[in-house]
From TrEMBL, chains A, B:
It is a multi-pass membrane protein. It comes from Parapontixanthobacter aurantiacus. One of its GO terms (cellular component) is endomembrane system. Its EC number is 7.1.3.1. This is K(+)-insensitive pyrophosphate-energized proton pump. The chain crosses the membrane at residues 6-26, 54-72, 78-99, 119-146, 166-183, 239-258, 264-287, 299-318, 364-387, 408-432, 438-459, 503-521, 541-563, 609-630, 636-659. The keyword Ion transport applies.
Length: 725, 725
């Protein structure tokens, strides 16, 4: 039990860090009156949007909570509510610190690059640590309540089932909020961005972030509700689902341990998350510009410190939980053939053992090391594909010289290509960890990846702050050197934003395997008499794979169309404002910013509902239709295949969209730095087109695929439990 | 034996039709001297390209033939050579009739729309019937030689194996040539198209197809070597592989029939192909404009006639081959449980039976009807997504009003969305045919789809002829009404081109399942002792699925990049020509068309090699690496999963690219028809960007995915045979 208590304490450390650091951020100067006024408008808009978004989600949430309670009982429903609430809190806090740090970053950038970086990164670190800390607290406290005060015994089948269902409910709550937040925020931010550009830059011929444009505040609000609140909810979800799934899989597969041993093994993911919060906090203090003024280098210093310190920290956590690192766990040397004789389910032994007999603490430790290496490689690959210093971005910039068409062609080629290396890294990660410790190896590798979430989110969340700071500098007509500094910070922000998305979808690749294993293990437990074939030779498996692979495409299409439609509404509203009051363009009267914010808010909320329901309803429809046509066994087979089809197709859709979009954005920035003709050249115009295309790719459709994958899997688990009850 | 003879005779009917109809085409007037001169240049360029392409492929082909002969014996190598040669012949004839019909279509369009349509469609019909006829002859004659003169007995295991290996070799030859032709032709046509546009329209400010542009002949050559020769080789391959795979699967799965019964069942796909050649020929005579001058309607009349007549024709063929339509074949009522007792492999019985006991001739007939319905639905869906009369194209046209960026965003959204309905149709097709007659149902549905290839290719091949005719009309400065007529014909051509690609990839979806079944059946036969798990619970299956899913992305990236690079070479060459001789732009001296053609030729040949090797080498590398890491059983499991991963991802990549590209092209045409501002408007400029982006999507990367899928599967079958020998 003390392992869980320690984890809770470490989670609280993250919260305390967040409180202290946000005070530091708030203490920084917030500029002149004009800056405060602009920041106030952004803040107001962001709060209004989140309020309406959470109100809408709350309605859906209450309905779903009642359904969960009816089919799965009150404890699962409680888990759902906790997951949903804390996911919302994570997004809310991220947005709140971000809308206060933006103006302070602009003010600090007046003093220097290091000062701007410090404020922006500290704000990001607050979001990062609170996401990781709240996620860890959510699972750890819930697990503690279930096994402590409620005294559920993990070795009693029915009570273990209650714990599992509760954890799955928690994950479902987090995921459902997160898909709404990611998609709603993504539609908001890109509808405002694209709409503002179209009506401002193209039609009215005024620069970006010009205060005369009624949509400019909405654009800045979007950075906060999409890239910050949406992202925070998404990573909260990823953390909860991954760590939760590892614990659930442990409970399902390991059937030969005594109660306290099983409890220790299930607590290990929590403890790993806890110690990595400490290493992440240490890492944040090392983010500092060197002599070369290399911003990416400064961020790398922080990440590498965290990763290196996490090695001994994870070793320590594993020793604490398991004691003897070389003792065999799982199969405990029992061959599958003889397992039946001693009363152990042979299927579970085989699944746990993977290829060899059993696994040890060292095997789990090495698996987690693989998780850290995978994280590092994905960051490095993403930087290669989206950084201005390498071939991909430069090839897009160069192709802009010959026009809009070639810019987009090269961008699409890069986005397709960018899927290759991450996929290979994930595949090698799967093979190595499976060789080490079977499915448990894969699960713990995913957990170790997520343990670094605090640091990774910190790197990401600093991006929208600098983006906003640039907007405020422009609107408040600060000195041009300030905008140059915020632009330099923002260019790196494009890469770190892409990094988080690659990291989230990469970890989803591993987590989905874990969730699928939970699905099959559940199936055996709930329907022992049913002979379900997941073999590729079963055509219903192919049917499931095809339908699953379709979901990210359809979802992506809906997201892209929604942005186009909502952006059109923005254009119409701005046109109407210009027509009604000619003083706006003359600069004598102030546009009604709030009206545009309100309009984008309504449009984003309306557009997010239908696509978000797709991954919730698809598993249910597929199961019932295939069961009707070909019997229940094939219904479950098709449903299981659907889960893997979503991840196999989703990983490519998400990776290509997020890396491609980041590359397009930075190709534009590279040209604006004076290459290929610089600002205002034909190449620049072409690069602006590419950037616009990349916007809904990287900030709406692409990142929302990650929670979509998880929801599909979790709904399947809940469906199983509901059918069995 | 007479069934095969009848099939051969019907294949010869197609060839005779081709000869007669090409004479009719050649008899049509070929315009004035200027037109003949231009057409001559195009013809010369196309022949030069194909000569060099086939020379290069021949070198690769000889090397591969030697390897096949070494590992699999002389008969398989002979099959490979026959498949490769006839695939080349199909492409060569298609190109040859097309380069002669273009100028005659332009001349005929001077008299009227119907006259232009007649010449162009007849040329398409020649290509269509020769593709279907030669493909049918290739398999039927080869099968006849093996089982007749060479007297191989299908009930003797070793001799049946020789027949199977020979048919697989034939399919491999067809596929290997086809991927080179599709990709090389695709790179040529789009490099020339994009390059000519960039340097002509954008830099020099001269219109499309202006004779002063040195790349304009290369552009027109591209239509013939890509859309015509490449497409013909591709559909030849699809036909041979699908029909061949159905025969191979029959031989592998049906183990309880007498020699002559098995022979009849194996001949049925040939006979179905034969009778549908007759119905396709009849259909070509009904392509005629009605009072409404609706071109798509005229083409539909032809297709629907063919489809309707094919219903009784296929019924007749099935009765001829099987006699009693209600007799049970396959399982013959033997339950899988008791199959062992009577000496039948229970796995094969179960696989054949699907869900019920055995299948009848009527079941096969109904499965083939499903194949026809799937074909019809895919055509209808493709028309919806690419025709100028429906929401998708119009939404892209409308979004062009707000700029390049929104045009591309909407186009990408449509391309993602366009995968949904075809996937659902294919999924329903799989379920229904599997319910009817197990795997054999799926195989015969695919065969029936391909039986209509003659008609479908005819609809497609008419497109590049009208495209060329428009170019010739422009260059020869014919009256503007001529260009209007060829443009109207060409707009429909964009849809029919997309139709063929959707049809090819849709049938590939079914054929890949058949090939995968052949792979698993082969595996059992070659390595009976090996316990290979294709279950999704095996992580090496996931690894295979992920790596397979990666291939279309990487392949697409390579294709798109190749077009960009080669188009850049074109730009440089044209710039050099303009700089060296100022008389070119003045119109006083003629540019060196041949030099540009030669340059694109070399670039396309160079660029096609590496991506084409990807699907050949990937299965071999994956098998050996996974075998090394996790043993042979997992090596085979990962390889099998790779095969399905390629199709599951490839079907979406190919569908989205081909439909999206067609929609972009026609959105431009819709605007040129006077909507949203018409030619020269800002919306038109944005639509031109979308069209350029769609070019490599729909004509290079997208269509080449189809042969790529097949090659991966066939290489796996050959690898199995080589490992076993």
């Amino acid at each position: 039990m003390e392992l869980v208590i320690i984890s809770i304490a470490l989670g609280l450390v993250a919260v305390i860090y967040g409180i202290i650091t946000s005070r530091q951020v708030l203490k920084a100067g917030d500029g002149n009156d004009r800056m405060r006024e602009i920041a106030g408008a952004v803040q107001e808009g962001a709060q209004a949007y989140l309020k309406r978004q959470y109100t809408t989600i709350a309605i859906v949430g209450v309905v779903v909570a009642v359904i969960v309670a009816y089919f799965l009982g009150v404890i699962s429903a409680a888990g759902f509510v906790v997951g949903a609430l804390l996911s919302g809190v994570a997004g809310f806090i991220g947005m709140n610190i971000s809308v206060r740090a933006n103006v302070r970053t602009a003010a600090a950038a007046q003093s220097g690059l290091q000062q701007g970086l410090t404020v922006a990164f500290r704000a990001g670190a607050v979001t990062g640590m609170l996401v990781a800390g709240l996620a860890l607290l959510a699972i750890a406290v819930f697990f503690w309540v279930l096994t402590g005060p409620m005294a559920l015994d993990l070795t009693v089948q029915a009570e273990k089932r209650e714990v599992i269902d509760a954890l799955v409910g928690l994950a479902f709550g987090a995921s459902l909020i997160s898909i709404f937040a990611r998609l709603g925020g993504g539609i908001f931010t890109k509808a405002a961005d694209v709409g503002a550009d179209l009506v401002g830059k193209v039609e009215a011929g005024i620069p970006e972030d010009d205060p005369r444009n009624p949509a400019t505040i909405a654009d800045n609000v979007g950075d906060n509700v999409g890239d910050c609140a949406g992202m925070a909810a998404d990573l909260f979800e990823t953390y909860v689902v991954t760590v939760g799934a590892t614990m659930v899989l442990t409970a399902l597969l390991i059937t030969n341990l005594a109660s306290d041993e099983l409890f220790a093994l299930m607590s290990l993911p929590l403890l790993v998350g806890g110690v990595c919060i400490v290493t992440s906090i240490i890492g944040t203090y090392l983010v500092r510009l060197g002599k070369s003024n290399n911003i990416m280098g400064a961020l790398y210093k922080g990440f590498i410190t965290t990763a290196v310190l996490s090695v001994p920290a994870i070793y320590l956590a594993t020793t604490m939980a398991l004691g003897d690192m070389n003792a065999v766990i799982g199969g405990v040397g029992i061959a599958a053939e003889t397992a039946v004789e001693v009363g152990v389910d042979p299927a579970s032994v085989e699944a746990v053992e993977g290829v060899a007999g059993g696994f040890t603490g060292m095997d789990l430790f090495w698996s987690m090391m693989v998780g850290l290496i995978v994280t590092g490689l994905i960051i490095w690959i993403t930087e290669y594909y989206t950084g201005t210093g390498y071939r991909p971005v430069r090839s897009i910039a160069k192709s802009s010289e010959t026009g809009h068409g070639t810019n987009v062609i090269q961008g699409l080629a890069i986005s397709l290509e960018s899927t290759a290396l991450p996929t290979l890294v994930i595949v090698i990660g799967i093979i190595v960890t499976y060789q080490l410790a079977g499915l448990m190896g894969i699960a713990f590798a995913a957990t170790a990846m997520l343990a670094l979430a605090g640091m990774v989110v910190a790197l990401d969340a600093y991006g929208p702050v600098t983006d906003n700071a640039g907007g405020i500098a422009e609107m408040a007509e600060l000195d041009e050197t300030v905008r140059e500094k915020t632009d330099a910070l923002d260019a790196v922000g494009n890469t770190t934003k892409a990094v988080t998305k690659g990291y989230a979808i990469g970890s989803a690749g591993l987590a989905a395997l874990v969730l699928f294993s939970a699905y099959t293990a559940d199936l055996v437990e709930f329907f022992p008499a049913l002979d379900v074939s997941f073999s590729l030779e079963n055509p219903y498996v192919i049917v499931g794979l095809l339908l699953g692979a379709l979901l990210p495409y359809l979802f992506g299409a809906m997201g892209m169309t929604a942005v186009g439609r909502a952006a059109g509404d923005v254009v119409k509203d701005v046109r109407a404002q210009f027509a009604a009051d000619s003083g706006i363009m003359a600069g004598t009267s102030r546009p009604d910013y709030a009206r545009t914010v309100d309009l984008v808010t309504k449009a984003a909320i309306k557009e997010m509902i239908l696509p978000s329901m797709l991954p919730v309803l698809a598993p249910i429809v597929v199961y019932f239709v295939i069961t009707l046509v070909a019997g229940q066994a094939n219904g479950f087979a098709a449903l299981g295949a659907l889960l893997l089809g979503v991840i196999i197709s989703g990983i490519f859709v998400a990776l290509s969209m997020t890396a491609g979009g980041g590359a397009w954005d930075n190709a534009k920035k590279y040209i604006e730095d004076g290459n290929h003709g610089g600002k205002g050249s034909e190449a620049h115009k072409a690069a602006v087109t590419g950037d616009t295309v990349g916007d809904p790719y990287k900030d709406t459709a692409g990142p929302a695929v990650n929670p979509m994958i998880k929801i599909t899997n979790i709904v399947a688990l809940l469906l199983l439990a509901a059918l069995a009850s």
